[in-house]
Design goal:
The structure is a single chain. Helices cover about 30% and strands about 20% of the residues. About 30% of the residues have low confidence. The chain is built from five helices and six strands. A hairpin with a 2-residue loop joins β1 and β2. With about 200 residues, it is α+β, with helices and mostly antiparallel strands. It is globular. The N and C termini lie far apart (about 70 Å). The strands form two sheets. Strands 3-4-5-6 form a four-stranded mixed beta sheet.
């Protein structure tokens, strides 16, 4: 054995002993808990600020989609967000709807929605009964328990379109803007996309 090999053997021996004394096995795989979780997606739900749609980030659940985003929207703004001036014209599960509402902007993202007058938001027993959300391909359908979409202020319809459209787009990046259809029991439909909704 050459002098160089003898020196290498003398160095490797104590190193292995040191690892063993620290409880670190020299070979094999050690399992230490489950795999790391993925990144929690951030959705945008649209409340209102100064009479205009305002995106608010919400931590989503997987799989992300329009249905979970609308559910978060119907929970309404938090106490801190309400104190900062955010409101909603939709029936809320987390708070009573406002008694007075701001005027519609000149052109919300859903052009047809702007024709509906702003009135007091209707009350619903539960959000799950208020809106049924279905996604198919590049379209989202929101069926309301109201007799007509005309029973909602135009800005409330815009909140639904922006929120559902942005969430569906997040789960299908790179595709064309997702078309969102909102309809009441009379089947009167309002369509729009999130393409013109603010992102910040």
């Amino acid at each position: 054995m050459t002098a160089a090999r003898r020196r290498a053997a003398l160095l490797v021996g104590p190193a292995l002993c040191g690892l063993a004394s620290c409880g670190i096995p020299a070979t094999g795989v050690v399992e230490a808990g489950g795999p790391a979780g993925g990144v929690v997606p951030t959705l945008r739900v649209y409340f209102l600020a100064d009479g205009r749609p305002a995106p608010v980030p919400r931590k989503g659940v997987t799989p992300i989609g329009a249905a979970s985003a609308v559910e978060m929207l119907l929970q309404g703004p938090t106490a801190e967000e309400r104190a900062a001036g955010l409101t909603s014209l939709l029936p809320l599960t987390g708070a009573d709807p406002p008694s007075a509402v701001p005027a519609d902007p000149a052109r919300p993202p859903a052009a047809e929605a702007s024709r509906a007058p702003a009135t007091e938001a209707p009350r619903a027993a539960a959000a799950t009964n208020f809106a049924k959300v279905t996604t198919r391909d590049n379209r989202v359908s929101i069926e309301l328990s109201l007799s007509s979409t005309g029973d909602l202020p135009g800005l409330a319809v815009t909140q639904l379109i922006c929120t559902a459209g942005a969430a569906a787009q997040l789960s299908n990046p790179g595709d064309d803007p997702v078309t969102v259809t909102v309809a009441g029991r009379d089947r009167r439909r309002v369509e729009g996309t999130a393409a013109r909704c603010p992102t910040t």
